[in-house]
Amino acid sequence: MATTIDAPRAPYSSAPRHRGINWEKWGWVYMRASGVVLLILIFGHLFVNLMLGDGIKAIDFAFVGGKWSDPFWQWWDVIMLWLAFIHGGNGMRTIVNDYATRPAMRTILKGAIAVAVVVLIVLGTLVVFTFDPCPANGLPSELPDFCSTL
């Protein structure tokens, strides 16, 4: 009993491209490199937050406020955020390239992914770098308990 496998779909022209930057190759390289760096960042993040100190019981608003008062941890979290969103966006782009058959739909979906990634990166970065658990002009009744001791 012989079986045959259908030829794979070619979402683009079957003619090979030889000019310009090979974005697919660099996307593939990025996925491998960012995956390795993300493993280090994520497991470091989990180890510091869960294994050191009191574990999960210690994670609250004050813990995050104290952690983000140190520029090292701000940058650690921002690098992790950026790599994770770009890694995920690139993965979604690959899925769209594989399954969206109409060029217009492919362009719309990839544009939506790019906008979502950029917006979320900007918002996440702003949160990390502008986070202030004890704003100077905040009402004392609305501030966390630990702000009254500062």
From TrEMBL:
Keyword tags: Heme, Iron, Membrane, Metal-binding, Transmembrane, Transmembrane helix
TM spans (from-to): none
Q: Name one GO molecular function term.
A: metal ion binding
* Cellular component, GO annotation: membrane
Q: Where in the cell is it found?
A: Membrane
Q: Cross-referenced SUPFAM superfamilies, in alphabetical order?
A: Fumarate reductase respiratory complex transmembrane subunits
Record's signal peptide: none
UniProt superkingdom: Bacteria
Q: What is this protein called?
A: Succinate dehydrogenase
Q: Which organism is it from?
A: Cnuibacter physcomitrellae
